[in-house]
């Protein structure tokens, strides 16, 4: 993350933390609804997306962070041409991209509680969140799992008719701590959320690993940047493979009365 962006994010996080009640601050930040409206770009994007939601009444919603927001990038390099993936797989389904760079579960909770599921009736919601919990707000697997569960609870309370496609936190190559907690939170989801009939879990780790189970740097765009960053964001090609993986499930859920 570039230094000015990192400073802006930390300033917003400190401002948000100052608004938490003592009880929230003492428990789990991953389950608290925290705004980033103090960041101009985030505020502008939130307001733009509110207008899109009201105008479009989407059938399919993608909730997430920068990995989801990347669907709006169009290259010019093939590994950064996400827009063509969105155009092929999601634009025909009357979908909307609600990915916000840097968001953790706490920021997504604030967005949902402040309008992103109001006045609409989506049939399917794709949820990919949690990677930034291991970075910016630094919550461990158990705390992050509670944050994801809170997101699911809020989504279901507001849109009980919607089916949720829950994609497990994607692999990355950031640190041994992040890798261990990524595996742990995904294991918790597999073990504890299987009884929810409206939640359909997707484990996409195989798209990022070789035959020995090692995470492949070439599945990510970050090493291609100048200067390179630790592998975190899938390339457009990897994102296309993920879209192909979940396409039959999404089609089936959209077709279900």
Notes on the protein architecture:
The protein is α/β, with parallel strands linked by helices and 257 residues long. The protein is built from nine helices and five strands. Helices cover 45% and strands 9% of the residues. The chain has a five-stranded parallel sheet with strand order 2-1-3-4-5, sandwiched between helices. Residues 1-25 have low confidence and may be disordered. It has a single domain (3-255), classed as Rossmann fold (3-Layer(aba) Sandwich), CATH 3.40.50.1110. Belongs to the 'GDSL' lipolytic enzyme family. Platelet-activating factor acetylhydrolase IB beta/gamma subunits subfamily. Keywords: Hydrolase, Signal. It comes from Endobacter medicaginis. GO terms for molecular function: hydrolase activity, acting on ester bonds. Residues 1-25 form the signal peptide.
Query: What is the H-and-E element order?
Result: HHHEHHEHEHEHEH
Catalogue the unreliable spans.
Answer: 1-25
CATH class: Alpha Beta
What overall form do the CA principal axes indicate?
globular
> What's the CATH H-level superfamily name?
SGNH hydrolase
**First-to-last CA distance:** 44 Å
**CA-atom Rg in angstroms:** 17 Å
Biggest sheet, strands in spatial order?
A: 2-1-3-4-5
Protein name: Acetylhydrolase
Domain SGNH hydrolase-type esterase: 63-239
GO molecular function: hydrolase activity, acting on ester bonds
InterPro entries: SGNH_hydro (IPR013830), SGNH_hydro_sf (IPR036514), TAT_signal (IPR006311)
